Amino acid sequence: MTKKILIIVTTLFFAGMLFLTFFAEKIHESSLPEVTASRPEQRLFPYEYVDENGEQQTGSIQKIAVPITMLEDGVYAVYSAEKNGTKRDFVRLAPVQTGEERDGYVEIVSGFMFSDRIVTESAGELYDGAEVRVDRS
Fold first, then answer.
1. Do 96 and 111 form a contact (C-beta atoms < 8 A)?
2. Which end of the chain is less congested by CB atoms within 10 angstroms, N or C?
3. Contact assessment for residue 37 and residue 126, using Cβ atoms and an 8 Å cutoff
């Protein structure tokens, strides 16, 4: 009887290990927060300058901007890195410095560039260095 139990336990153990060998990656990926990422927007912001006649003028210039509401939880930039031999996506909390506010958007002076992808939506809690699944649709 003890020998049968030992054989059953050993068989179940190896079946479990075989299952994990084939499905561990999928299980891991399904547990990651899914995010939507895009390039930051560019918005027009007014600026003043002195023209060639010495007169004060007002113009507009495009600057990187994010919705003010995005600053509440922090702005996360998406980056890719290799982990365990596989290219994966991660997020970093961008230390943004803000400038002017206009029409619900705030200018980003520094912290990320226009070429960076920033998280616009997240289906899970994010933290600096978190691995994520980026929605590619």
1. yes
2. C
3. no
Q: How far is C-alpha 62 from the chain's CA centre?
A: 24
Q: pTM for the full model?
A: 0.72
pLDDT per position as a tens digit, 87-104: 899 999 999 999 989 889
DSSP 72-116: SS-EEEEEEEEETTEEEEEEEEE--EEEEEETTEEEEEESS-TTS
Name residues whose C-beta falls within 8 Å of residue 70's C-beta, 6 or more positions apart in sequence: 120
In whole angstroms, what is the distance from residue 92 CA to residue 97 CA? 15
pLDDT of residue 93: 93
Question: CA–CA separation, 106 vs 127, rounded Å?
Answer: 22
* Geometric angle at alpha carbon 117, from 116 and 123, rounded to 5°: 155
> Cα-flanking dihedrals φ and ψ of residue 31, to 5°?
-90, -10
Taking only the tens place, the pLDDT of each residue in 107-130 is 999 988 888 899 988 888 899 999
**Euclidean distance between CA atoms 119 and 37, whole angstroms:** 4
Q: Which residues, at least 6 apart from 35, have a Cβ–Cβ distance to it below 8 Å?
A: 76, 78, 91, 119, 121, 122, 123, 124, 126, 132, 133, 134, 135
